[in-house]
Design goal:
- The chain is an alpha+beta fold.
- It has 2 domains: 86 residues, no CATH class; 53 residues, no CATH class.
- Helices cover 30% and strands 18% of the residues.
- The longest helix is centred in the N-terminal third of the chain and has 16 residues.
- The radius of gyration is 19 Å and the shape is globular.
């Protein structure tokens, strides 16, 4: 599971499913996701596909084995309910840590400062990866960086991305 801090309003309450569990939400703006999906579908219908080998959005002619619909390739058109709200920057005053293995669900409450969020995560032994937790300093490094990968394998050891990213910043 990767970890990502999201800026949210002070009164943000992440939506729940009927079973009481958090509903996963993408952090990408819905408006951008739907615009890109619509553009991709239009290009598909014109005989082009997205070139996934490029950082920027470049369309190339479809491959000979590209049959089926755009939905077969990219899934259904995005719907707003699967995305975080697009609040104005001025409303995004608080911090919340998310796991982003799926679209994203919170692993912390909404908290006012990076330091208080790091303290809460460390004191409550929040998962940095699986059963691994992290120290206050490791969480604070991750919050300042914005995110950490699920895990890092280095020096013959598997570590949480939270731990490994902090070591990288301190080095």
């Amino acid at each position: 599971m990767s970890r990502e801090v999201r800026m949210v309003p002070a009164n943000w309450q992440h939506p729940l499913r009927a079973n009481g569990q958090y509903k996963p939400l993408f952090d990408e703006p819905y408006s951008r996701a739907v615009q890109q999906w619509d553009e991709g579908k239009e290009q598909w219908e014109r005989g082009f596909r997205l070139d996934w080998s490029k950082e920027e959005r470049v369309f190339i002619p479809k491959f000979p084995d590209d049959d089926g619909t755009y939905e077969d390739l990219e899934g259904e058109r995005p719907v707003p309910e699967k995305y975080m709200p697009e609040w104005p920057e001025s409303d995004r005053t608080h911090y919340q840590m998310y796991e982003t293995t799926s679209e994203g669900t919170p692993i912390s409450p909404v908290i006012a400062t990076p330091e208080d969020l790091a303290r809460w995560l460390a004191d409550n032994k929040a998962s940095a990866f699986g059963a691994q937790t992290a120290t206050y300093q490791q969480w604070l490094c991750t919050i300042k960086q914005g995110s950490a990968p699920s895990m890092i394998f280095s020096d013959g050891k598997l570590r949480s991305g939270v731990e490994a990213c902090c070591k990288k910043e301190v080095s």
